[in-house]
Amino acid sequence: MKLLRLNAITGLFAVTLCVLSLTSYMHLTAKSSLTYQRAASKVLTVFYNNTKHLSYQLTQWHDTHGPDHSSTSFYSVHRQSLPTTKERRHIAFLKVHKAASSTAQNIFLRFAKKRDLLVVLPLVPKFFYPNVISITESVTEQNILPVPGDRFYEILCCHVKYNKAAFARIMPPDTVNIGIVRDPFDHFISTLNYMRPVEVFKINTSDPVSAFLEDPTNYLKRTTMGFINNWMAFEFDFPADLFETRDANGIEQYLHKLNSEFQLVLIVEMFDESLVLMRRFLNWGMKDILYVKLNSKGKVFERITFKPGDVHLYKKWGELDYALYRFFFRRIQVQIQEQGQTFYDELLYYRVIRKDMEIFCEGNLTSNATYLVPASSWSDVFEITKEDCANMKKREIPFIKEIRMQQYGFFNDTIKPG
Known about the structure:
Blueprint: H1 2-29, H2 33-65, E1 91-93, H3 101-115, E2 155-156, H4 164-170, E3 176-181, H5 184-195, H6 198-201, H7 208-214, H8 231-235, H9 240-245, H10 248-261, E4 264-267, H11 271-282, H12 310-317, H13 319-337, H14 342-361, E5 370-373, E6 382-385, H15 386-393, H16 396-408
Parallel strand pairs: 1-2, 1-3, 3-4
Antiparallel strand pairs: 5-6
Helix pairs in contact: 1-2, 1-14, 2-14, 3-16, 7-12, 10-13, 11-14
């Protein structure tokens, strides 16, 4: 059986590499978009015929030798009654800082724009940063724009702290709560690079990060709100006393609570898998979950040095973030397993299509350029246009400004058209 598993994995990997190579080559050599689309369709057909048996082998092995599901009851998911054919349009996305959330937010904004859904937007009376509702509190009547006319809020995806009651007050009863988390140490590095927290960089030593991690409480109280103090847990509204006590039972109880309130939490390190699972849960189209990476800043290791043992030290300091990440990382494994073998077939298909989309969008496109994606087991035929590429590449602040203008007819809350 081990040999069967190895052969199946090797076969899937080889076939995937061949498809990616062939589709890239066809893009460069096709004489017209029609030629390219026909060639792509033929390659995809061959790809799925060859992977079907290999995927079945992997599934058979997993069914026989996989983990004992009796140990996963703690990660069972509370589900609302999800329709099987109608797409879910009411979404509350917890946009966690420095966790690929700008890329995810772009997906929700495109979805809302295409269907003219009302997005919850921040009130910006003094400074103009239109993508933040609040850093320190959840949604209130005082920090969001009122509902225009007889409409109601349908999509929430701007930065704001989670609170079950606050979200429920403004969103429809059938709203699906979706969050996102990232490996805590990678989140820490990204925060250091992007935020440059003064608590760390004011330390007068050649290795300020290592010095901070030796004893963080010398520089920051456990109860002090800050981007380098279990920030993901803070945005998920962990009780304040847990930041001080780190009580294991209290952490477990709150994770149980979140488990019942969030239908899905995306994992940055499993971003494609998370989006395919989300597509299935929400009954969205394949086109809806395509993306390009946004707001990605290179890691500045030449200016931030670490020592062996720093990761271990940070794990002690970031105990709440690690508990949060570990819980939802394990839960998504269970959710994926429940989907069966077709999930992995769809994931491979999605990655091929997304790579093809990137090749198309990176080209010199004419105004009427399109890429026709052939029909598959998971999608009807659809096309990607130059406008689609522009929307996927659109940064969050310009996109939010566009949505504000579309919904309210003005950009700044203190300067309205007369």
